[in-house]
Amino acid sequence: MSSTFGTLYRVTTFGESHGRGVGAIVDGYPPRVPLAEADIQPQLDRRRPGQSHLTTDRAETDRVTILSGVENGLTLGSPIAVLVANKDQKPSDYKEMQFVPRPSHADYTYQMKYGIRAASGGGRSSARETIARVAAGAMAEKFLHVICGVEIIAWVSAVGNISAPEVDIEKITRAEVDRTAVRCPHQNTASRMQKEIEAAKEEKDSIGGIITCVCRNLAAGWGEPVFDKMEAKLAQAMLSIPATKGFEIGSGFAGTRMRGSAHNDAFIKKGDRLGTRTNFSGGTQGGISNGEPIFFRVAFKPPATIGRTQETADFEGQAVALAAKGRHDPCVVPRAVPIVETMAALVLADFALRQKARG
Amino acid sequence: MSSTFGTLYRVTTFGESHGRGVGAIVDGYPPRVPLAEADIQPQLDRRRPGQSHLTTDRAETDRVTILSGVENGLTLGSPIAVLVANKDQKPSDYKEMQFVPRPSHADYTYQMKYGIRAASGGGRSSARETIARVAAGAMAEKFLHVICGVEIIAWVSAVGNISAPEVDIEKITRAEVDRTAVRCPHQNTASRMQKEIEAAKEEKDSIGGIITCVCRNLAAGWGEPVFDKMEAKLAQAMLSIPATKGFEIGSGFAGTRMRGSAHNDAFIKKGDRLGTRTNFSGGTQGGISNGEPIFFRVAFKPPATIGRTQETADFEGQAVALAAKGRHDPCVVPRAVPIVETMAALVLADFALRQKARG
Amino acid sequence: MSSTFGTLYRVTTFGESHGRGVGAIVDGYPPRVPLAEADIQPQLDRRRPGQSHLTTDRAETDRVTILSGVENGLTLGSPIAVLVANKDQKPSDYKEMQFVPRPSHADYTYQMKYGIRAASGGGRSSARETIARVAAGAMAEKFLHVICGVEIIAWVSAVGNISAPEVDIEKITRAEVDRTAVRCPHQNTASRMQKEIEAAKEEKDSIGGIITCVCRNLAAGWGEPVFDKMEAKLAQAMLSIPATKGFEIGSGFAGTRMRGSAHNDAFIKKGDRLGTRTNFSGGTQGGISNGEPIFFRVAFKPPATIGRTQETADFEGQAVALAAKGRHDPCVVPRAVPIVETMAALVLADFALRQKARG
Amino acid sequence: MSSTFGTLYRVTTFGESHGRGVGAIVDGYPPRVPLAEADIQPQLDRRRPGQSHLTTDRAETDRVTILSGVENGLTLGSPIAVLVANKDQKPSDYKEMQFVPRPSHADYTYQMKYGIRAASGGGRSSARETIARVAAGAMAEKFLHVICGVEIIAWVSAVGNISAPEVDIEKITRAEVDRTAVRCPHQNTASRMQKEIEAAKEEKDSIGGIITCVCRNLAAGWGEPVFDKMEAKLAQAMLSIPATKGFEIGSGFAGTRMRGSAHNDAFIKKGDRLGTRTNFSGGTQGGISNGEPIFFRVAFKPPATIGRTQETADFEGQAVALAAKGRHDPCVVPRAVPIVETMAALVLADFALRQKARG
Questions:
Q1: Mean per-residue pLDDT, C195-218
Q2: Which of the listed CATH numbers 3.60.150.10, 1.10.8.60, 3.90.25.10, 3.40.50.720 matches domain B4-358?
Q3: ipTM greater than 0.95, yes or no?
């Protein structure tokens, strides 16, 4: 288990799907920053199941409580612990798991790794684990926004075969993203995505998608070569989110088909700083932010839990037919938008503090 | 600077392009493993510039010396330091860099981060830095191969628009990969890739590409959720390699267009273990290896150094025309194959030891 | 703030004296170990204020709750979070602290470090912080005892000028230690110590003391040279406990006056293992346990909070007279016994796992 | 093996007594600091064997080379690697070690830990290992001195039963310390210490001693509670030095015999800052520097290598007589003075950078 992330903005999380709660300790939060539960709750609400018919209909309220590190509305510099209690537990939904590892879930691998696994609901591999990250990352967003002026905005850019047109990454806002339940800022595409998700749900199936994220107004100089490069830590952060299968920054995989003469980002004067004419680099060169927007895309597979019957094997290798009875999301990307944003915030907050130490 | 990677198999690297040498300390190498310079040199030779006309014609011999941690051919359990001296220095090639940050290089970002930068050759952001990783990773490969039976094989699967057909990831060997200078095991495709690279070189331009990598014979149970998942650390490792822009594991970005019913990897009995019928997961579920081959793809951009004249700006923001005079690779993927393999080895060696502590 | 301790048995703590609670996350706890709150509570009870008239008369119940990582009485291998709610808060006791930094307390240094400090009760520097360590360390004791057979026993060996005679470190038990309120196993000395503490209390003053600790039945081979040697991590652990001023292992400071011929621990056969005739080394050579009992002593200063009036200065440098009104311990060593034991357990648990990874 | 120390000023060392060399990588050194080999060599010279008849007569020149991270006399912010080649090897001196573990040496524990050990000279547990620390710490001293104004001075305060009188910790200089070969600034005492060491040498025996160290001109606010307190990391650093058995800060063990009313350090105005009238705390409160001098004492045991015959056992448990033939120090404290200073510098440099990140 490595449930700690970060060097100076250091987050440690805990919690299974069906224990008493999930939460996190943030050690290294800068002192004297205004912080309250109200700064954290909105991202938890955006992550919460049951927001629309596109997501699971489990009703989780997920109220966060700050246990330490904040007094009279200001951070003290000491560790900030946050807790979200677990409530809506229906262990009976997960009964079959005892003998049959669910395909493309972590039942089998947890059993092989630990020689034991949570009796129900995925335990530590459950989506509930992400609550702790979102809480810790929402706290990071507060600091990044108030102290550094950084903005982080993610949106759904593809569901299955349906892709959204380009978005102006300099201007996109969370309000635009949240206008539709599917969290795609392009309304027509959003409708089509919504139909695609409904179709998958109808067929007791699931569907994948892509989230794009932009981080704006970063200073040049963030990122710690050679192993903790900006893109390297973003990639780790994103691939640590359940159900992710890919990460690309700037030109990404498409950039491999380009010539250097077209791909190179020439410098130009932008006000009082040096900027680049194009941004195929995605805001990072040599693993360090260059002052241009950082943008990247994250691939999410179709959720493994589906209502359809699947031919698979039990732990003993005997063939069995399995059909999920629990409640589940046909597509995770709408709810994963705040997870991507807050994980990006964890990366950037750590880089901000590490660069400050050098300054 | 974060030049340390790993928790129990812990590598720390040093070295600029034009200093006295590059090298690494590996702390945590298991004791009593046979290890010699001859185990490390082959991967350095595969990484070396000047292997063919497809790569830069700089001649670097890059001989590795073990300074500590090995006695009478066996590891002692103490830190193993390796050193590769720098030789072929032509600082004059890099003269213009003093006033003009090279587009899509790290000159500008290093200057912004550190307030100083190496006078020539890219300093720490140079490709020479990767020598230290390759040496440390080649040592990891030895341990993984001898003790754990793991095999790691990477190859060039795309150059520009030319993609190789599927490869049998259960059988591919390094010998097959090394049959062509371009390191694509499919001979016809290799010829076309070679022509594409020659064309780019001819035009004083550069071209990108994709490397695919497979890791075979891993035990189930490696990977440390929730932040150090198998795919998360592989992604960090790969995106820490210079010139990378993307990472995908298993079905990757293409998997986002699939339905769950098609994407789920059903379990079946394979000999005395439980395996999966398909492997869209890429050998990892919930961030933990499941015993199937791990495979992933890494996107490399076209190299930033090109002979063509580029319209850009100097540090003051004044427009200038810049043309590289130095020797450089028109395409990095042939030489990056051993870098991908050895970075994968660093990730796996650390997971092997971390899981052993749990066993 | 560095509130994380350990590499593989990794503890992160949180909590101020007057927030909602104190607690810890233990990441890396071995899976499949029987663990319950009843394993943790006894050491918390031994640490608790108000146990006798020798300690503060604040009544703190300090009930621990396990929030995660344990199911059906067995550890899952996932992070184990524990929480102890804060209850008995009387902020008014600490009113003067607002303007006057208490001598030899951390009010001044926290203010200088963070530019802010908890308004009352010492915040993170309060003795309540140690609850989290004790809980995490009691969990470590369970694992060390059940899996490795290790025993850790500490006792009060000096209060002020009163020192206890030598104790048989091979045989001493916690029951013997707990026979007296002062936790000195030598009854006559315990009585004299008790009178010394009562005298200090009477005079509205405080008094220091020494705790000796032995760790028995360790395998040879624990400890991680060169920076994480057995004695080095024990020293860090002990000096991280509030009010500590010194640490010595084996012969300690007295050993500096010896000749090597007298100090060297000659080897002799002990059953089927190699042991040493004497144990001036304190069970560690070259930073690695040698199979003999590890024993060390920890110096505690007289508590800084005293009822007597002290001539000091406020934050502005103005001379003031200060007298503590709160409830406080005249001597910390009786209650610090379980803190020393559990901090030792944190060190040993981490070494046990790190050595297992090598095995 | 844990050969890495520090969070932001991070040192990793390597090297056995009889390999090709010893050295270190310092990652996190601030950029743009003037640094040259001449800044490092003096402390290596003070540590070097063969300086006087009080130390071993092995002649080691120990010239340091900077391999990376410095260009044109300025640090680049990239990792700085330093190397000291091994030269004067006489493996034959250590022949008996093959079958007989030397009493109070690490031969036995290394064998038990790693299942293998260096064939000669103590390997990683040899005093030569400290060269790497001293080099890395001398670099830290440069930064602390030039950027922060910090001064670190250690001296021999006891040899066997001979103790030096109190020293004015505000004024003591390295020049005063180095006036005598024994490195005690009080001349009369130095003569007596010298005779004591000569007597031990004459008798083919060895003798222990104590080093006192002061760190002056630190800002208030350094130190990272709760586990990385100033005194905790100093204690770890000191107890990681070979042959150390104890550490005490401020009043130390003697302070345990004091009353709080006498021990508390009352605040008074000192110029424009708040200081304390006494300094029983040793410059740290709550684990954070308070602006007063930090001072501490380190206990060194008599060296284990002695010429006298010792009755001990071989690895099989058979009784044998052993007499060291190699060259060795009868007392380590004169040469350990720079080791204590440079280890203190490693601790302070890390705290300086960690506090800067918070500022």
A1: 97
A2: 3.60.150.10
A3: yes
